[in-house]
Amino acid sequence: MRPLVLLIALATLSAHAGPNGSDLYTRHCSACHGEVGTGGVGVPLALPAFLGTVSDHYLETTIRTGRPGRVMPAFSQLDDAEVAAIIGHIRSWMPDGSKVPAHDTRPVAGDRQRGAPLFAQHCANCHGDRGQGGAGTGVTFSRSRALPIIAPALNNAAFLDAATDQMIKQTLMEGRAGTPMVSFLEQGLTEQEIEDIVAYVRGFEATPIPFEAHADEPPYLEYASPYGVEESVEALKRAATGKNFRIIREQNLEFGLFPQDEENANQRIVYFCNFNLINEAMKLDPRVGLFMPCRVTVVERADGTVSLMSINPKFMAQFFNNSSLEAPCAQMYDTYVAIMEEATL
Predict the structure, then answer these.
(1) In angstroms, what CA-CA distances link 206 with 62, 117, 153, 160, 202?
(2) Three-class DSSP category at 243
(3) Contact 23, 72 (CB under 8 A)
């Protein structure tokens, strides 16, 4: 067969084969959920107790909408065939002979008021007093963690949209072997009490925990300095020290990119850090290391004007999809503003 004809034939066969679920899972899901679904940042997917509880509708909705504020992004760019292929790959981990759970939308006959104290007693320790889920991402970089996985958020609009009452009820009744989630029937709760808890969780829909993406924030902060480069650098270091930050180092912006004698000495970076602040932020999400320790760049432009510039932590927060970072990123924003304003007085 001629090469061109062979290529056309292979392309035709590939088109008819459809998306490869294993490849798509590896590309989009494995970094958080593990190569074979054993979990990590994300919950383990390969557990029989999980796959025997969740419907394809739940998986599809979760992939489509993610979990706003809980690290799991929305994969809205995937088409229906690609989502179906990923679900098919996840289903390949089901034990032989297992059936895919139906999408059962029947509501439970629970009472939310009775469920409130039951939730506080049996669920809040892991899932949070407001159903906000466990703190952080599960990535600990050798830090200790109380549980082998981070408890998912129940007070999350995307979760409540994907999960039915019957799925939540079944999870509470049977538990989830391989995770800290126990069977509450075995813990002594009645079926009615479990339905009361489900009703309480469903009531979160009325007051969901908000998550603000900050997409309207500018990507960086900039302040004009009335001083030259050297004076601006020294003023910046004094301001950072005055805010209880330790100066780590300063270097030319072009350090390592050009021979030392060719670096532009009028473009400087000052690195500084408050170790308690960075440690607490890293506990919540180690990805903040992308913009920590703190750094401000001092730049002299061609017209002789000098500017102080830094990344905007509020803008960066949107890329992590982690509501736990809202407060520390806002605190860092305020810190950058205060330091640069003082340095340019």
Answers:
(1) 20, 18, 15, 11, 8
(2) coil
(3) no
- For Cα atoms 156, 61, 178, give the angle at the middle one, nearest 5 degrees: 70
Q: Residues 170, 176, 181, CA angle at the centre, nearest 5°?
A: 100
Residue 148: half-sphere exposure toward Cβ, Cα within 13 Å: 8
SS (H, E, C) 147-204: CCCCCCCCCCHHHHHHCCHHHHHHHHHHCCCCCCCCCCCCCCCCHHHHHHHHHHHHHH
pLDDT by residue (tens digit) across 57-105? Answer: 999 999 999 998 888 999 999 999 999 999 999 999 999 989 999 999 9
DSSP label at residue 227: S
Name the residue among 237, 335, 342 with its Cα closest to residue 278. 335
Cis peptide before 293 (omega within 30 of 0): yes
182's CB contacts (< 8 A; 6+ apart) are: 175
The residues with which 255 forms a beta bridge, in sequence order, are 258
DSSP E strands in the chain: the ranges are 220-225, 246-252, 267-273, 294-300, 306-311
Instruction: Characterise 175 by phi-psi region: left (phi > 0), alpha (psi -120 to 50), beta (else).
Output: left
The single residue listed with the structure tokens 């034990």 is 95
> Quick one: tokens of 259?
């021979």
The identity of residue 191, as a single letter, is E
* Residue 13: φ, ψ to 5°: -65, -40
pTM of the model: 0.75
Q: Report the SS3 class of residue 128.
A: coil
